[in-house]
Amino acid sequence: MSRKTRKAASSPSHPTKEPYTLHEIPLKQPDRSGPSQPTLFDLAAEREAELRKQIPQYEAKRAKKSAQPSTSDAKIAIDTEQSDDALLTALIYGFTLTSVHITLDILTWHQYAQEMQYWPLVTRNLKSTLPMSMLLVYVFHAPFFGLTRFEWLRQVLFFCAAVGCGVYAVYLCNEGPFLAVMKRVPPVVTMVLWAMLEMGPGMCAGAVGIVVTTVLWRGWSLY
Predict the structure, then answer these.
(1) Is the distance from CB of 196 to CB of 207 less than 8 angstroms?
(2) pLDDT digits (tens, 9 = 90+) for 57-78
(3) Could you tell me the pTM of the whole model?
(4) Using an 8 Å Cβ cutoff, are 137 and 98 in contact?
């Protein structure tokens, strides 16, 4: 098979179209009337205009929200601040009351001429008196326990504690055995001092008056 025969066999059966010549290309002006439907630029411009109209309203809402915080947020902030203050108060009162308790322990031991070791006494008070004092003070000062919302209830509780513990301390000192005085008087007197610190001047005077009246009525001695 010759070269021409092979070329004719491999060529397609349909005739090939000749390209346009320069004179056959149609010449006319393009359509300059513009698109008949909105383009992407038009849609973006419309959306931008809508957002610009909403900016003043959004700014006004944000300014109003920042100027007037919600009630729940304000309440949480107040409770957190009061809780921090209660923790600091518990630390201060706890160490102070523990120091008073240690001092009363030493005085009662010396009153009965008993030999004592100071370091075990201090460590025992740091392990028991300090955490108990801090817990009680924190309960009466922390906001989520609810006692701070009822100041009159706190004052009544402290008044009853001052009167009861005061009368009991005088009773132990006058009629109790020396072992009861050594073991019970320090914590009872410490409780009286804490209650006096928490009460107002009027209620403190009333509690002292009741204790003194009871002492005179029973014929006890204050020293």
Answers:
(1) yes
(2) 777 777 776 655 555 544 454 5
(3) 0.60
(4) no
- Helix (H, G, I), strand (E, B), or coil: what is residue 14? coil
Q: Which residue shows structure tokens 């359509």?
A: 31
Name which of 141, 132, 154 is nearest 79 in CA terms.
Answer: 141
Place of tokens 């002006």: 29
Residue 50, both tokens: 């809508």
Record the tokens describing residue 128, joined without a space: 């028991």
What is the distance between the alpha carbons of residues 152 and 104, in angstroms, rounded to a whole number? 30
| Residue 195 burial (CB count, 10 A) | 23
- Burial (CB < 10 A; 0-12, 13-18, 19+), residue 143, is middle
Q: Both tokens of residue 161? A: 């504690």
List strand residue ranges (DSSP E) for 8-127, in order.
none
Instruction: Answer yes or no: are the C-beta atoms of 167 and 160 closer than 8 Å.
Output: no
